[in-house]
Amino acid sequence: xxxxxxxxxxxxxxxxxxxxxxxxxxxxxxxxxxxxxxxxxxxxxxxxxxxxxxxxxxxxxxxxxxxxxxxxxxxxxxxxxxxxxxxxxxxxxxxxxxxxxxxxxxxxxxxxxxxxxxxxxxxxxxxxxxxxxxxxxxxxxxxxxxxxxxxxxxxxxxxxxxxxxxxxxxxxxxxxxxxxxxxxxxxxxxxxxxxxxxxxxxxxxxxxxxxxxxxxxxxxxxxxxxxxxxxxxxxxxxxxxxxxxxxxxxxxxxxxxxxxxxxxxxxxxxxxxxxxxxxxxxxxxxxxxxxxxxxxxxxxxxxxxxxxxxxxxxxxxxxxxxxxxxxxxxxxxxxxxxxxxxxxxx
Length: 346
Ligand SMILES: NC(=O)c1ccc[n+]([C@@H]2O[C@H](COP(=O)([O-])OP(=O)(O)OC[C@H]3O[C@@H](n4cnc5c(N)ncnc54)[C@H](O)[C@@H]3O)[C@@H](O)[C@H]2O)c1
Fold this sequence. Notes:
The protein has helices spanning 24-27, 49-60, 93-103, 117-122, 124-144, 156-160, 179-198, 223-232, 252-265, 281-292, 316-322, 330-342; strands at 40-44, 64-69, 84-87, 107-110, 149-155, 201-207, 209-211, 238-240, 246-247, 249-251, 269-273, 279-280, 299-301. By secondary structure, it is α/β, with parallel strands linked by helices. The chain has one domain (39-342): NAD(P)-binding Rossmann-like Domain (Rossmann fold), CATH 3.40.50. The strands form four sheets. A seven-stranded parallel sheet has the order 3-2-1-4-5-6-11, sandwiched between helices. The relative contact order is 0.14. Bound molecules: nicotinamide-adenine-dinucleotide (NAD). Nicotinamide-adenine-dinucleotide binds next to helix 2, strand 2, helix 5, strand 5 and strand 7.
């Protein structure tokens, strides 16, 4: 079992599953238990925020893990030293054929993506290149090399768009309003095609807003990481609009847990991974301001045109079929996240 030291910024950061506020009784038996059948797993995007935590968890469970990442936003030192690392791009078909021939993964966790919504609007071709051609390269190489099951990092908020009902179930009408949302939904349709044609199983995890340790504070998304780092520097965070826009926030280890459960359950289909609770941005800022011990208040700037106002996912299906439910509420998750960022230098 990995034991890690949050405070050591020079060492690879393998976020622990044993410490912190993880509800060991709830999640025990499904993580950190070596001795279950070990699987050959491939994690794309395994140097990134969610993918690196997932890699740690799979290794803690005794699985054999290979990682693909081009390090465009990922961090090499976040990749567990027991994982074999392939620094390559999923758009490179020859490289994907080579990695699959070498690794012969039984399970693939596909997280590598172009996930910047504004970039997808500015350059929809690049978004499709990474999120669709990249996915097809992986599925083609996979079907020829014995791949059995794919767990795909999809997006609930981006696929449903403005919702009619709160929280949205999986059957909600799909109204993606960015090329990113379109490519995530099209990715699910391709996975379904490969399931029908080649019997490749898949679970599409329609994530809500995932936050926690290791999230990149320099991107356009990831409000928790952005605010946390600003506050710790003593700077005022900026909320766009009135701050009443809501999102559904899920702690990263819970997102990881859903993916591992999906891999073990092997049921093909889509799963919302959300808390079902709407939290507005003013509330997130207030929690983080308190956790940081910041004496000021958040500033407000003009709303971003076209920004989605509300988003919240019904994860009843994940609970019924995967036995998944979130282990932390936003208050506990934000405090834990703030403590982690406090030990980092940005
Ligand atoms: N973070 C969220 O709130 C959230 C919500 C919904 C869905 N998702 C999805 O989850 C996945 C992981 O997101 P994250 O938040 O960990 O982001 P991240 O940027 O930390 O991780 C993505 C990883 O993919 C790698 N990558 C990007 N393009 C690549 C390419 N062409 N070839 C190889 N590697 C490439 C990056 O270097 C990075 O390490 C993404 O697919 C994202 O769309 C995330």
